[in-house]
């Protein structure tokens, strides 16, 4: 019996050591170290207050012949001849860093916010291609000089399960975000400002969420360009001084509890109403001369073990507004509740899978403190389903 216990303990230790070896933590303090550290299954911690000029590190490695070339600006659809996971793209006035196929990668600052810079105005600061389970936290990203340009700050191309927390993206990049062909991208508490042309492009993507973000002082063309995408929503966000038409939407996009100031849009005259393909729920339009403020209450559904009388569910909080209900016996049938308005106690039901139709149901989640029950109602108030919390 003792031998069996010893073997079991040894096996668990080997598994732990193997998992630790598979996911490394690397601390860097220079741009060259940052580029060299990039790869899958790791956390990169930037431990310096000095800005890291990625372009200088790329140019040095290109001159040394240690960084392979990927797609170029002129032939974006050309096949990549290298299997390297870190490459560069040659653009009009310099090189772009490309990170491709790096799964389970986290990049964050050791303290405060770390700064990543690019010198070329025709190059993105960072490009991530075919990366899954990507996390960026507490980063400032931008270009070193202003002027005309043709690339933005952060581009996500065919990436899945991306989380961006507490970042700052600024111009002169054409725009803060390009999200193309991605699934399940969540951006929390991030600011996009002073971009030359747009705020973002979201193309051929689904389940893209912006929570408590600020978009300000971007100029000159259409600001929110969203096409060929599903389940894109903005919750608790501030849009301030965006020059040019605000909406360039080919799909329905939801705005929950958002604030608009100094933006080109029609007045908001109802709590819930469409403006073309923009669906506004509990949004506010401030006068141009008023202070821009955000005061959005957060939902409070208590995580833990829940039941509907037939099945048990593990309830977790995915972000500030989103709660995921996962059946313990059928984890693939998870669904999520997104809060629209705490004051009105309104939620919407959203499937985790992008292949399912998006459903609009009202959820009454209790009003006194953190809720221990949820009732799903149709538009007429008929009870469809109910859940209650039974433990931690």
- Helix percent reads under 10%
Q: What is the total number of structural domains?
A: 2
- Assess the beta-strand content as a share of residues: over 45%
Assign the CATH topology of the largest domain.
Pectate Lyase C-like
Low-confidence stretches at least 5 residues in length (pLDDT < 50)? 1-21, 352-361
**E-strand count:** 36
Structural class: mainly beta
- Count of separate DSSP helical elements: 3
Strand sequence of the main sheet, in spatial order?
Answer: 1-2-6-9-12-15-18-21-24-27-26
Which characteristics define this entry?
nine-stranded parallel sheet, eleven-stranded mixed sheet, disordered N terminus, 36 strands, Lipocalin, 392 residues, 2 domains
Model description:
There is one protein chain. The chain is 10% helix and 46% strand. The strands form four sheets. An eleven-stranded mixed sheet has the order 1-2-6-9-12-15-18-21-24-27-26. The chain folds into two domains: 25-72 and 83-286, Pectate Lyase C-like; 304-391, Lipocalin (Beta Barrel), CATH 2.40.128. The chain has three helices and 36 strands. It is mostly beta strands and 392 residues long. Mean pLDDT is 81; it is low at 1-21 and 352-361. It has helices spanning 2-22, 31-37, 54-64, and strands at residues 24-28, 42-46, 52-53, 86-91, 94-100, 105-109, 114-118, 126-129, 132-137, 139-143, 154-157, 160-165, 168-170, 177-180, 183-188, 191-193, 200-203, 206-211, 214-216, 224-227, 230-235, 238-245, 247-249, 253-256, 259-264, 272-275, 278-281, 284-286, 304-307, 312-319, 322-327, 335-341, 346-351, 362-364, 373-377, 383-391.
């Amino acid at each position: 019996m003792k031998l069996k216990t010893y073997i079991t303990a040894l096996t668990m230790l080997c598994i732990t050591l193997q998992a630790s070896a598979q996911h490394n933590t690397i601390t860097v303090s220079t741009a060259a170290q940052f580029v060299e550290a990039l790869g899958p299954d790791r956390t990169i911690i930037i431990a310096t207050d000095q800005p890291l000029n990625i372009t200088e590190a790329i140019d040095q490695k290109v001159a040394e012949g240690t960084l392979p070339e990927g797609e170029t600006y002129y032939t974006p659809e050309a096949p990549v001849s290298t299997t390297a996971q870190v490459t560069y793209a040659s653009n009009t006035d310099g090189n772009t860093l490309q990170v491709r196929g790096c799964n389970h990668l986290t990049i964050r600052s050791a303290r405060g916010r770390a700064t990543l810079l690019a010198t070329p105005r025709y190059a993105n600061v960072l490009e991530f291609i075919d990366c899954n389970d990507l996390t960026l936290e507490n980063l400032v990203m931008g270009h070193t000089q202003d002027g005309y340009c043709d690339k933005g700050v952060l581009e996500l191309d065919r990436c899945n399960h991306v989380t961006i927390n507490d970042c700052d993206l600024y111009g002169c990049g054409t725009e803060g975000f390009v999200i193309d062909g991605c699934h399940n991208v969540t951006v929390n508490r991030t600011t996009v400002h002073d971009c030359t042309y747009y705020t973002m492009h979201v193309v051929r993507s689904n389940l893209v969420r912006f929570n408590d973000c600020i978009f300000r002082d971007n100029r000159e063309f259409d600001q929110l360009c969203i096409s060929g995408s599903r389940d894109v929503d903005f919750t608790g966000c501030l849009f301030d001084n965006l020059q040019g038409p605000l909406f360039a939407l080919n799909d329905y996009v939801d705005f929950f509890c958002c604030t608009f100031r100094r933006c080109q849009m029609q007045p908001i005259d109802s709590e819930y109403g469409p403006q073309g393909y923009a669906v506004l729920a509990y949004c506010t339009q401030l006068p141009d001369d008023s202070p821009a403020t955000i005061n959005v209450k957060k939902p409070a559904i208590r995580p833990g073990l829940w039941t509907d009388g037939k099945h048990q569910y593990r309830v977790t909080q995915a972000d500030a507004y989103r709660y995921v209900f996962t059946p313990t016996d059928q984890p693939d049938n998870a669904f999520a509740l997104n809060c629209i308005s705490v004051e009105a106690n309104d939620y919407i039901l959203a499937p985790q899978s992008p292949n399912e139709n998006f459903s609009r149901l009202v959820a009454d989640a209790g009003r006194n403190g953190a809720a221990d029950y949820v009732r799903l109602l149709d538009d007429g108030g008929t009870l469809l389903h109910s859940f209650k919390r039974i433990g931690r």
